[in-house]
UniProtKB/TrEMBL annotation:
Zn(2+) binds at H35, H37, H215, D296. The lineage of its organism: Bacteria, Pseudomonadati, Pseudomonadota, Betaproteobacteria, Burkholderiales. GO terms for cellular component: cytosol. Keywords: Hydrolase, Metal-binding, Nucleotide metabolism, Zinc. Its cofactor is Zn(2+). Catalyzes the hydrolytic deamination of adenine to hypoxanthine. Plays an important role in the purine salvage pathway and in nitrogen catabolism. This is Adenine deaminase. It comes from Sphaerotilus hippei.
Length: 358
């Protein structure tokens, strides 16, 4: 069930807002971000600062040289550089600094709630203890609540190019810090690593009361989305943009209000779509899907959440104030926050648009 109601007064307010005001409204409206890999928020400047602090030698001479290497042809070409960038993360303070930088940015972008993916195996496989990772991230999440007024939570992701046994090992190692993460996800190389590979470990996670989400239908076929739903019982589909190739799947996703965490700039940088003008976000919304906009790996893909929104709306003139409101509403509905909190954010959003149009 959708949590938001487009009342006649709200519809009139949204329809009265001229397109010229959209960029500012997109940036200032309250919203949630649900698809953000914290390692993908590591900016080149911070990579170099942490490399120096930790005595790590990078295979790039400068920030500019590193940034120049950010020319991707597909998901794997990005992941190779993304894992290399994460190699500077060694101490608890590094994980804190990375997450804090993102959360400060989120506060400045009027993100009231953020659910952050992290990839423990990227770090434990380099010898970094999992408690160093989780403690650093959790400290930033806690401080964001008290100092920034941003509600944030962590979602532990399993790397799907590794084995299910490795995922079980990671889950076991993380359980002493269970209170610091609300769920698990599935990321990394999608093609050739279907959700079915992780059916048993996801079942265990659900038994433990963890939320479960999975990347599916970014590069992978609609069949991977079916698997994520049927075998993993995923509560959201991360990306999911290829669902439109399967009309029966679209009907199923719409009927169940299954959220799709769409990431437009990521899709362009990884060549999932040729251009933002050709992105299927308007079609997803027209189909009644619970889609919202997210930044995925903002340090690598050319922009944080507000830039994703502004650039996407600029490229797709069929997106207007009604869609802005719908995307933010969907972001709250799809979050793992409690119902009372969602209702408060939704009321704030409705008031924001009513006031803007008054
Ligand atoms: O967009 C992504 N897809 C899959 N894995 C990832 N890990 C970081 N970003 C991504
Ligand atoms: Zn992602």
């Amino acid at each position: 069930m959708a949590i938001a109601t487009l009342t006649p007064a709200l519809a009139a307010a949204l329809d009265a807002l001229p397109a010229s005001r959209l960029p500012a409204l997109l940036c200032t409206m309250p919203k949630a971000e649900l698809h953000l890999h914290i390692e993908g928020s590591l900016e080149p400047e911070l990579i170099f600062r942490l490399a120096e602090r930790n005595g790590v030698t990078l295979p790039y001479a400068s920030v500019e040289a590193l940034r120049a290497a950010y020319a991707f042809t597909d998901l794997q070409s990005f992941l190779d550089i993304y894992y290399a960038g994460a190699s500077v993360l060694l101490q608890e303070a590094d994980f804190f600094d990375m997450a804090w930088a993102y959360l400060e940015k989120a506060a400045a972008e009027n993100i009231v709630h953020a659910e952050l993916f992290f990839d423990p195996q990227t770090h434990t496989d380099r010898g970094v203890p999992i408690d160093v990772v989780i403690r650093g991230l959790a400290r930033a999440v806690e401080r964001a609540r008290t100092e920034l007024g941003v509600s944030a939570a962590l979602i532990l992701c399993f790397l799907r190019h590794l084995s299910e046994a490795a995922a079980f090992g990671t889950l076991e190692a993380a359980l002493p810090w269970r209170e610091h993460f609300i769920g698990v996800g599935l990321d990394s190389s999608e093609l050739g690593h279907p959700p079915s590979k992780f059916e048993r470990v996801f079942a265990r996670c659900r038994e433990l009361g963890l939320h479960v989400v999975a990347h599916a239908g970014e590069e992978g076929p609609p069949a991977y989305i079916h698997e994520a739903l049927d075998l993993l019982h995923s509560e959201r589909i991360d990306h999911g943009v290829r669902c439109l190739e399967d009309p029966a799947l679209v009907q199923r996703l719409a009927a169940s209000r299954m959220p799709l965490t769409v990431c437009p700039l990521s899709n362009i940088k990884l060549c999932v779509f040729d251009s933002l003008a050709g992105h299927n976000l308007p079609a997803l919304l027209d189909a009644g899907l619970c889609a919202m906009v997210n930044s995925d790996d903002p340090a690598y893909f050319g922009g944080y959440l507000n830039q994703n929104l502004v650039e996407t709306f600029a490229a797709l003139p069929q997106l207007g104030a009604r869609q802005a409101w719908q995307l933010a509403s969907n972001s709250f509905e799809a979050s793992f926050a409690d119902a009372a909190e969602k209702a408060r954010w939704q009321a704030r959003l409705d008031t924001f648009f009513l006031t803007a149009a008054a």
